[in-house]
């Protein structure tokens, strides 16, 4: 893979990680209520996460393991993986990238594996 494509993948995953972090903060801080845009977005991502999780399980994909997670816990989900599951879920690739990252970090957290994803602190 040319270096420019590698940088693009890293930048895109950084954006997905940022979106996942923003979503997690928003889901924690959002107030529930009818017509609340945050609640609607939260419901949409929840439905998408369920659909993507089902597809991943059917394919035997373990996001917490290589090649989807690096030894240091950072994401190595490629654009190709995002496009594949976006097509299978018939969903927006950016939303799928966010869902994949949330699922990946959540799985690593449950397994208490190191992760530099949305919930970890770099301070």
List the keywords.
disordered N terminus; 123 residues; mainly alpha
Secondary structure: elements and pairs:
Layout: H1 3-29, H2 37-59, H3 79-89, H4 93-110
Helix pairs in contact: 1-4, 2-3, 2-4, 3-4
Structural commentary:
With 123 residues, the protein is mainly alpha-helical. It has one domain (3-25, 39-110). Helices cover 64% and strands 0% of the residues. It is built from 4 helices and no strands. The radius of gyration is 14 Å and the shape is globular. The protein starts with a helix and ends in a 13-residue tail after the last helix. The model is unreliable at 1-13 and 25-35 (pLDDT under 50).
Low-confidence stretches: 1-13, 25-35
Report mean pLDDT, rounded to a whole number.
76
Rg to the nearest angstrom?
14 Å
Q: How much strand? A: under 5%
Largest sheet: none
Structural class: mainly alpha
Global shape: globular
Count of domain modules: 1
- What is the tally of beta strands? 0
- Total helical segments: 4
Helicity level, as a percent range? 55-70%
SSE succession? HHHH
Termini separation comes to: 33 Å
Structure in a nutshell:
With about 120 residues, the chain is mostly helical. The chain contains 4 helices and no strands.
